[in-house]
Amino acid sequence: MIWYLRVFGIFVFVFFFAVIGQKESRLERTWEVKLKPDQTQKILYESFQPKSYRPPTVGEEWESKTLGETVKCKTIAVTNTPTISFQIQTEGFKHYQMLKETYQLDATENGVRIMAKWEIEPVPNFTSKLLFLFFSDADLNLIASSKEKRF
Length: 151
Fold this sequence. Notes:
The protein is of the alpha+beta class. Helix content is 34%, strand content 38%.
């Protein structure tokens, strides 16, 4: 009986450090669309700020709804030469400290190749990190697939 308690204790100890050790989760995807680069950029930016119909500008802030929560978004980087890229930082989630989305648009022969990267960090408490361990990849996949479906 004591042998079982020792094994269970080791399992709990390892699981505890697995939960506490969660720092961030990252997802990268690449896909191609048959549009012009500026049209693609406007469609992607509109997914953050509906009815904007314009390219992003650095320092712009707004409220948006992501993953069912009202959060604050901010454009933190924009580059238009030689490739178009922009980065959006989202804060205000209940269990996530920050979501950072980076998009790079490269012109190809048939349209545009979109290279996207999503990074998410948990709030530094045990409950948030426990939820992060099980659901962060699913949340990132949900965000990524919703961006891909816009095309």
